[in-house]
Amino acid sequence: MFPYILLTAGFLFAVGVLGVLIRRNPLVVFMSIELMLNAVNLVLVGYSSYLNSEEGQIFAFMVIVVAAAEVVVGLGLLTRVFRIGRELDVDDLDEMQQ
Amino acid sequence: MSMIAGLPLATATPGGGDLVGLLPEVIVAVGFVALMLMDLVVPPSRRSWLAGATAAVLAGAFAMSVWGWFDAGPAGRTVYFGAVAYDRLSAFVNCVVLVSSLVTVMISPGYLNRRGLHHGEYYALLLAATVGMMLLDAATSLMVIFLAIELLSISLYILSGFARDEERSQEAAIKYLLLGSFASAFMLFGMALVYGETGHTQLAQIALAMSHPGPLDPLLVGGVILMFVGFAFKVSAAPFHFWTPDVYQGAPVAVTTFMSVATKVAAFAVLIRVFDDAFASYYAHWSSVVIAVAIISMVVGNLAALTQTSVKRMLAYSGIAQAGYILIGVAVGVAVPLGVQGALYYLAAYAVTNIGAFAVVTVMSGHGEDLDSYDHLRGLWFRRPYVAAALGFFLLSLGGFPVTAGFFGKFLVFAAAIAAHNVALAIWGIGTSAVSIFYYLRVALLMFQRREEGEEQPYAWPRTSLLGGGAVAATAAGTLILGTAVPLLLTVVQLAQAGTLPGAT
To answer: Number of residue pairs across A and B with CB atoms under 8 Å?
Structure first.
């Protein structure tokens, strides 16, 4: 049973990485990062039940809390960029490379 | 559910001894909350009071850290059930972080007023980031490392976007946030694997589990490498550096001053604690990766810095190269103690020098946009001779000239590489720092160029305030002291290095 949990988590993580690398909308990039973090949570909880140690579960809770805090700041910043009048596309964020 | 219910009740509760070990962090954390509340009652015209309160908090925490250095003793101990170290490494790095923070507070009010960005939450966020850094250098548990990194990162994401109406600043913040969380996810995946394969989240127990001989565990090696990727991002080592130039350029320069130095110092402290101590028995598996990243950082950072025409981007690429030099010390630190000592020396030298260089840019940034283009520095010597001389001195130190702090930092890490029989690594370092002299001198000489008859002054440099000038003078004095009174700091880093992982006996 346990190897399948790891494999599923690895697959979810890979999907998240691909999403960050190929999607252009920052909101979708955000969702992909959340997917990566949840893959990590799956690994933590999986190991926790496999090893019968509670540390992994506590760790997973911390990851959830921090992910929420990150999203709050991220959405705030995205709103700000949108107000300044930009399209929401990460490829357009190149003001300093011109 | 049954598993949780079946847990034995925790019988031990944290006591006063635990609190003493965390006192500097607690002072800054309480200061952070107090500053947020003070912002509500202090009138906008009196915002400089907030800077004064912040400086007082930082000075208090600094005094406690110095006291903690002596109180913790040579071996140190862990507090809060092994989650946080109370030892000389954390006391030393705390002091470096707090001084960086204090210098930033000194140059901030003038700069923020000129740019019209003087909002109260700036100081609260600065303190929040400082707490994160202090916790990071003391963390001895994977969970605390993760929480501390996120605390400092999220505060810095907001600070990077502090110029709310400026496109560049917002862009810098978004980039930092997206790439930062991406790197955090990799580091977390690594932590989850390390936890799973060793069964522990505390570094001392992980070190014990890893030292048992047995068949090689590929998942554990993968976890260690993924954790290194996360840390390499935080110290902006190539090839994980893509965010650095854009974020350093886009963020308000006072924020860049702080994050270019303090983040790197704290992240290197935890890198030393985790890799040179906890993961020491897996040295053979991670050292080649660290050496490769060190060489790539030195080459990429120095070559890219050559072609820049923006002061902030040049300093960003120079910071990437400096991260490479410090990584040399980390890479050989398990084999020779001089590696870790050299890295710590380099960190202190880099902190005081780089914060000085950025402080000059901050102090000279006037109304409108930040001083940024190389052109903006032309002829600075004839108008602001003291500031120009200080910047020249900092650039010489970054380039590693003798009698400056940078020289002995480089000398020690190269000596460590040679002592570890890795002469090639030292040669890479010496070769790339020879290249770096070109771009540092180019900027230094620019300040002595006279402008032509009738040519407009390239940039309206503001008058130097007492505090700003004091900050520049203090960092210049620090660079000179670390470059001449070498035995002093060398003794300190030797003592700091003595016990980097308390409780791991």
So the answer is: 115
